[in-house]
Write the structure tokens for this entry.
Amino acid sequence: MGQAELLGLTMTTTGTSTDFEVDRHESPAARVQHLLHGNPVLGPLAVLIVAIIAFSLVNTRFFAAANLSLVLAQVTVIAVLALGQTLVILTAGIDLAAGAIAVFSSILMANFCTKAGMPGVPALILGFACGTAMGALNGFLVTRIKLPPFIVTLGTLTIFFSLNAVVSESETVRGADMPSLMTWTGTTIPIGGFRLTYGSIIMLALFAYFFYALKSTAWGRHVYATGDDIEAARLAGIRTNRVLFSVYTTAGLLYAVGGWILIGRLASASPNVGVDYNLDSITAVVLGGTSLFGGRGGVLGTLIGALIVGVFRNGLQLGGVEVVWQGFAIGLLVLVAVSLDQWIRKVKA
């Protein structure tokens, strides 16, 4: 579909000139459909802005610098996991093991320090390597054994959580027992009344890098092509198995980074967290406008999606809404987002 068609224009040629006229037969809904198909970030951005305005009007404390600092700190781990999840979903896959890899990596880092007596840097590097290896295992099973991503990551989710319990002996490692590097991501920097954590800075830097990588590198174009139509990508000479393996491996590394940030956030490494992170990471991706069918979306939308989750939960909590109903509201948002994605995909069809 040409650019003129996406904008709802009809091209007519007269002599040497080309004129564009608005297709007056196209309904307003169809124009919105075309607009969102070409700019998937607009929908999530509108939802985020409306949510911030609404919660600010309902409760004046919402827009306070201290509360906004809390929202950003709360979504940092989810956002980093959702970044890895975005890469996988862009290739028409899904990763149910994101939270398990993050938590297991954090437990390994903590135990490398407390039980093996390692300094912070080697423990951190080994933790990242283990997370990368877990992602590579998922990639190997998907690309070489040809198992569906859902089945692969459902299986490794169970395996990693079980290993997590074995390695940790179901005990929490306190931040005070680890080198300061392990909890450094939870340290805050005062900026006026706003307090920014180093973990949030790392998160924003990662999003900036992958925004560039997906938009401006051959690897990024291959990721989109693989997710859009894997057979067409193969015919075009793209080594799709290599692309998929690199995506799952990179996602594993990002989950391990999320595990490091999680240690700083909690000031501990606990085997009893992370169960909800799988769903939260997928929720952020879906709310951010990335299609579950692959090939459309991006990391900017995912960052906005993670902020939507954080804003809704924080705003509802300030309003005295029970946790159960907070989950209900987020679930409704996901259903609306998936339905909207189906509607937008009809443009492509």
About this structure: The mean pLDDT is 88. The longest strand covers residues 9-14.
